Fold this protein.
Amino acid sequence: MITRKDFPEAFLFGAATSAYQIEGHGFGGAGPTIWDTFAAQPGRVVNGETGAIACDHYHRYEADLDLLKGLDAYRFSTSWARVMPDGRTVNQAGLDYYDRLVDATLARGLKPFLTLYHWDMPAALGALGGWENRDVARWFGDYTDAVMDRIGDRMASTATINEPWCVSWLSHFLGHHAPGKQDITAGARAVHHVLLAHGEAMERLRARGQKNLGIVLNFEASQPATPQDTPAIARFDAIMNRMFIEPLTKGRYPELVLEGLDAHLPENWQDDMARISAPLDWLGVNYYTRQTITEAPGPWPRYTMRKTDAPKTQMGWDIYPEGLGETLKMLRQDYTADLPLFVTENGMAWDDSPQDGVIDDPARSDYLFSHLAQIQSAIAGGANIQGYFYWSLLDNFEWAFGYEKRFGMIHVDFETQERTPKNSFHAFKSWLSA
Ligand code: FCB
């Protein structure tokens, strides 16, 4: 088994969370988000659950951050709707909270890795068309400035947006996340406007002199169900894995994306590509699983997923650590060359429940160390990977799955808010200090 010493000394190990999933949006003057609107529609979120209380991290952040002592970094997000409850007016109590949170992070020797958008758009902006409205770039820019005015002086690293694919495609074309649309034009517009909002935020951040700026993308490995499914897999790969990194690094959409989206992108989208492809300081890579793809009849993009009998997590996601190695290799070869990469999310859900106060989750430890081994071997092969964040610190509000799926290294009892570190967390910490 690999050890901490097999990684470069400066390599950062951390854990990741996001605001809406843990804070408790009912507290501190936060405004309603597009997830509150979505959860109020029947059948959208398991049991109609929301982030109203979540892990009550808003009140418990000091104790939660204590759990992280011994790690190097903490990836968290600020909530747009907490900072700007109506999408425009700044809630000072929201900024006060992030100010305290950042100081508490630093006080524990953890480097703050900020993500500005992890899906909590104010409902008021959603009502104006949200990501489909081109003005979202300016709205997001204003929010970026409001956050950085207050905490920008203490960030080790700042990401604009978490998982543009989920923000746009999963939410406006596939319909699984807020706002739950299934419309190719909405999907195409959201794709482009998320990138534009990133571009605008980067300009504002650069103008302020902020350092270490990046974006976090999600990737999935893939395999064709049969050799005949190779064309389908190319379309899947273009949409899933290249639709954002290609504009960001090369200023163009992949051909296989334009095949379906050209007719639906906003007019004169080409004029935005220079802003969208302004240089990044680093790229965040989120990786969880592999898909098995097969051709499907019907309109573009004409593919669907097949279930396999591979080992699975509580989400039903295939466990395939090699896919992380494949992703890191693809990125380096095709897009990022020597740009620093951080694995900003990786982890698994399991149906954990305490037995006599102990949560034994060997499957999670295996998942963690097998993925770390992939990173280590990529680094040994010359890849510039500088950190790893486990998703997630705490069991939390897992979006459309509500509180059912447990990704945490720390178990949360949502009745009592009791925290219990799982055995995988003990294993991670002793591995780090060995
Ligand atoms: C990612 C999200 C994160 C969490 C994990 C399981 O797509 O960024 O909030 O839901 O998946």
About this structure: The radius of gyration is 20 Å. The mean pLDDT is 98. The CA atoms of residues 95 and 425 lie 31 Å apart. DSSP finds 16 helices and eleven strands in the chain.
